[in-house]
Write a structure and sequence with these properties.
Strand order of the largest sheet: 1-2-9-4-7
CATH class of the largest domain: Mainly Beta
Helix content: under 10%
Strand content: 35-45%
Number of strands: 49
CATH topology of the largest domain: Jelly Rolls
Radius of gyration: 48 Å
Number of helices: 0
Distance between the termini: 131 Å
Structural class: mainly beta
Number of domains: 5
């Protein structure tokens, strides 16, 4: 069963059907076909698009399975054509299958531009169909006898026969042949002049194209040459991408010195194939990236057989290329690795397709992705921490930090101090030393340090034990005599209010002041000192009835 034609659309009501185009020939090495269609039942509905070359092979453009019910969908199918088939006749077949009870409708069948998002409606015959969104009817021309969009160099597709009408100075089925200086005509057999001025000063006319200055000239009197970057009939056309920005031939548009890198064709307008989407990149450690891309998601033209991965530090202009590798025919997904990168840096990464002739397009249209390499938070760090300049209420700690290549970048150091029963952050610094001040004298203090990276803190250093130096204690309290017996007395006292740390011992110094019975007699020979660890002491062998200094 085939599709039935109605006023509004082409409809398929049976289990299968097909549409076949008239015989035509591709004009480039890439084919693009677009459909506007809908179905009443998504499940079981499949559309296949096949280009069948006369006396040759079948080229499968694609299959549409992701169908949404009762929604008009615009779908594009593209495929590359091998060079030996670019000039051979073919027919395009649209083959549909669906479940019983389902219905499929097609409003548009059109050739599209394989490189751009825009498309051009092409003709088999006029069918009255509704507008896609408004529901109002309008004449839409559906399916193609000849592929449109083929006319170049200012050629126009004739409304009468669908053939290209070339402007003066160009010839051929697609107007691709420039006649050159001093020539015109459908076969380039016309000659403007027998003088060196050629076609200068002449205006040429052609039906459906109109009148303008002969190729290579412009201006009111057609006496001015084309401005740089322009060529052709009335200088209406823009040059392609000529090598080193050189001007193209003002009569034909051909680049005399060849094309800019990445472009090809006589007019240097075709880009070699490149990926239409950026690759997916995964980080594997601080120095390695894994790059994944689908080789069939492309724009441009050509026959890519190889690829190379490129990367650069973000913000830089120059790309670094990895070794060129072959694309495997049986692999749709390509995986490659980049190694030896710098830790924790942003990189731009892209994949470049390399054509069969080993040329490639590496311009700004090649998409790239920006990723950052990872890093390692250090677990084992030898800080060589030590103390110095110990005073009564301060001291200093100093350490070293020698990061490895794969360690995360340092943000700062945290310096910790043990305060009674808890650890507290005493300081955050980018230096490798810290001063502790305002401490109690004669006390044991504990300090440690750790590096804090962009990804979190490293482990702590070992703990440094520091004892601040002692100060002189205040006077003891309540010094008094408690017992006196013969030549022995016992004295007692209380610990001073400020001890300047822990009191290790007391030194008791005594000396006879005077004798009670003989006050004028010298008794200073009765003197001495002793060391005790308690708050009392016993002084022996004293002079009876004498007064002593303590």
């Amino acid at each position: 069963m085939v599709f039935a034609e109605s006023r509004d659309q082409l409809a398929l009501y049976g289990a299968s059907g097909s549409l076949t185009s008239p015989e035509t020939s591709p004009w480039a090495d890439r084919l693009c076909l677009a459909l506007l269609a809908r179905t009443t039942r998504a499940r079981g509905t499949v559309l296949d698009i096949v280009a069948q070359f006369v006396g040759g092979r079948d080229l499968h453009l694609g299959r549409w399975r992701d169908v949404q019910e009762n929604i008009w969908s615009y779908v594009r199918f593209t495929a590359d054509i091998d060079p030996e088939y670019t000039d051979k006749p073919m027919r395009i077949h649209i083959i549909a299958t669906q479940d019983d009870g389902a219905s499929m409708y097609i409003r548009k069948i059109e050739e599209c531009d394989a490189e751009e998002k825009h498309s051009t409606i092409v003709v088999k015959k006029t069918v009255s169909m509704p507008a896609v969104f408004s529901g109002k009817s309008e004449d839409i021309k559906a399916f193609a006898q000849e592929l449109s969009g083929k006319c170049i160099n200012g050629g126009i597709l004739s409304k009468k026969n669908g053939q290209c009408v070339c402007p003066p100075g160009f010839a051929g089925s697609y107007c691709a042949e420039g006649c050159g200086a001093n020539k015109f005509g459908d076969d380039c057999g016309g000659k403007c002049s027998s003088f060196t001025r050629g076609c200068q000063g002449l205006a040429l006319c052609k039906h459906e194209v109109g009148c303008d200055c002969a190729p290579g000239f412009r201006g009111r009197f057609c006496s001015d040459g084309c401005a740089q970057g322009q060529y052709g009939f009335g200088c209406r056309q823009s040059c392609g991408r000529c090598q080193d920005g050189a001007p193209c031939d003002p009569f034909t548009g051909v680049c005399p010195a060849g094309c800019e890198a990445g472009f090809f064709g006589e007019l240097c307008r075709f880009k070699y194939k490149y990926l239409s989407t950026a690759p997916v990149v995964y980080t594997h450690g601080p120095h390695d990236l894994e790059v994944v891309f689908k080789k069939d998601l492309t724009l441009g033209r050509g026959l890519p057989r190889f690829y190379k991965i490129q990367y650069r530090l973000s913000g830089e202009k120059q790309w670094t290329s990895r070794q060129t590798r072959r694309l495997q025919e049986n692999e749709d997904i390509v995986t490659a690795n980049i190694t030896g990168l710098t830790t924790w840096k942003y990189y731009d990464v892209r994949a470049v397709l390399v054509d069969l002739d080993l040329n490639s397009y590496e311009g700004e249209d090649v998409p790239y992705i920006t990723v950052r390499t990872s890093c390692v938070v250090p677990e084992e760090v030898e800080y060589y921490i030590h103390s110095s300049d110990v005073q009564s209420n301060s001291f200093q700690v100093t350490w070293l930090y020698e990061p490895r290549e794969d360690w995360c970048p340092l943000q700062h150091f945290e310096v910790w101090l043990r305060d009674s029963w808890r650890w507290v952050v005493y300081a955050r610094t980018s230096d490798t030393s810290a001063n502790f001040t305002g401490l109690l004298a004669g006390r044991r203090h504990r300090a440690r340090v750790r590096a804090v990276t962009v990804q979190g803190p490293a482990r702590f250093s070992r703990t440094v034990l520091v004892t601040t130096s002692d100060q002189v204690p205040e006077m003891v309290l309540n010094l008094h005599q408690s017992i006196a017996k013969g030549r022995t007395i016992e004295i007692k006292w209380k610990e001073p209010r400020f001890t300047a740390g822990i009191i290790k011992h007391y030194i008791v110094i005594y000396k006879c002041k005077q004798l009670v019975a003989c006050p004028d007699e010298d008794c200073s020979h009765s003197a001495g000192q002793l060391t005790v660890r308690t708050t009392h002491a016993e002084l022996q062998k004293l002079i009876p009835h004498a007064q002593y200094y303590l």
